[in-house]
Specification:
Helix content: under 10%
Shape: globular
Subcellular location: Cell outer membrane
Membrane topology: Multi-pass membrane protein
Function: Forms passive diffusion pores that allow small molecular weight hydrophilic materials across the outer membrane.
Structural class: mainly beta
InterPro entries: Porin_alphabac
Distance between the termini: 85 Å
Strand order of the largest sheet: 2-5-6-9-10-11-12-13-14-15-16-17-18-19-20-21
Strand content: over 45%
Radius of gyration: 31 Å
Keywords: Cell outer membrane, Ion transport, Membrane, Porin, Signal, Transmembrane, Transmembrane beta strand, Transport
């Protein structure tokens, strides 16, 4: 065998081996498109499965900007100090808010496991109770200008955890708003719905919801309350119970609350009526005992107001409704009054510029019947303001998502 024959034989062998390996090679399949978000439509729109779990999650919230004038309700009579002469001037009430909401849902052998959270971040101006001392002697000011006056600065107003609850089946525990309000319903679609207040809100709860079918439902809620007036001072919780009957025409509902601090009882009944696709109406009446609420050592209880019965006197009422001009524009109205001859009126027009972006313009009026403080015998109403009649307006921009 010569060199030429050896080279040709080696080349033939390499070609044969290469061909065999090529025939045995594994073909790699094209990668399938990854499904990063799997839609979950069991609990409504906006939910998706958390990857690797059976839990459905929804994330939402809103960004809001309020511009207010006047001194009705939460407008708090915004004032500012002239830093040149110390005069007090009325000013705009301003607030920007970012609210983050989360919902989760999952089916279990014990029923649906749900959670809800809502956190609010605020920036704006408000009466903080601080003071301003003029840089020049008070004698240089006008007689109406005191040397030390309240200020109303703009700044961060803090973060609030408004909701953080867990619910399994009918059992709910965590941070919520009182069932005295949530179960029977808030007082209309106006911004200032508490000109005549209908109960406090923030509380920790242990609740159970019953769904009896045919539109009948009920709730029992053990609550902790909030603030120096509302928080329980022993191991006895506040207790709220409610029943509701809901039909296509509307609903009839009622709630009763026991205030364990003052051993007082308050209740509300409500009627909701859906007249047609454009008109919906409501009426609500509240009654509460106040024998132990007239405490002269407490600023709020000196006026017979507790955590649940926050209106003046024994009884109060609220009524109003919504009229939808079209799919974008609605008119909302609420009127209210109580036993102490306090009255309120709130009306607004809400317009959806585009889906998710609403502008609301509201006008509010209040009248305080008890103008003379029974404890200090001074000419102020129960909120500490010195006006018997007040008017305010609010312009709200809100982008919900």
């Amino acid at each position: 065998m010569n060199i030429k024959s050896l080279l040709l034989g080696s080349a033939a062998a390499l070609i044969a081996v290469s061909g065999a390996r090529a025939a045995d090679a594994v073909t790699v399949a094209e990668p399938e498109p990854a499904e990063y978000v799997k839609i979950c439509d069991v609990y409504g729109s906006g939910y998706f499965y958390i990857p690797g779990t059976e839990t459905c999650l929804r994330i939402g919230g809103y960004v809001r900007y309020d511009i207010g004038i006047g001194d009705v309700g939460s407008f708090d009579g915004a004032k500012n100090v002239d830093h040149q002469d110390g005069d007090i001037h009325s000013t705009f009430y301003k607030q920007a808010r970012f609210t983050l909401k989360t919902w989760t849902g999952q089916e279990t052998e014990l029923g649906t496991l749900k959670t809800y959270t809502e956190t609010r971040f605020n920036f704006g101006n408000h009466n903080r109770g601080a003071s301003f001392t003029p840089a020049v002697p008070a004698t240089t000011f006008t007689p109406a200008s005191p040397a030390v006056v309240s200020d109303n600065p703009a700044g961060f107003k803090g973060v609030s955890l408004n909701f953080a609850w867990i619910q399994l089946g009918g059992l709910r525990v965590g941070k919520d708003e009182s069932a005295f309000n949530t179960f029977i319903g808030y007082a209309g679609n106006v911004i200032q719905d508490t000109i005549v207040p209908y109960g406090d809100f923030d509380t920790n709860v242990v609740q159970y919801y019953f769904d009896a079918g045919n539109g009948f439902s009920a709730v029992v809620s053990l609550e902790e309350g909030a603030g120096t007036v509302g928080t329980i001072d022993s191991y006895v919780p506040h207790v709220v119970g409610g029943v509701k009957w809901t039909q296509g025409w509307g609903a009839i509902s009622g709630v009763v609350a026991y205030d364990s601090n003052y051993e007082e009882v308050a209740g509300k009944v409500r009627l909701d009526v859906t007249v047609n696709d454009a008109i919906s109406l409501f009426g609500m009446f509240g009654y509460g005992s106040d024998n132990n609420l007239n405490d002269p050592t407490n600023v709020i209880n000196a006026h017979g107001r507790g955590f649940y019965k926050q209106w003046g006197g024994n009884w109060a009422w609220w009524a109003g409704g919504t009229y939808k001009f079209n799919e974008k524009t609605s008119f909302n109205l609420q009127v209210s009054g109580d036993d102490d001859k306090n009255y309120g009126l709130a009306a607004n027009v809400a317009y959806d510029i585009v889906p998710g972006f609403t502008v609301t313009a509201e006008v509010d009026w209040d009248h305080y019947g008890r103008f003379n403080d029974p404890v200090t015998n001074t000419n102020v109403n129960w909120t500490g303001a010195d006006k018997k009649n007040s008017v305010g307006g609010l312009l709200r921009f809100q982008r919900s998502f």
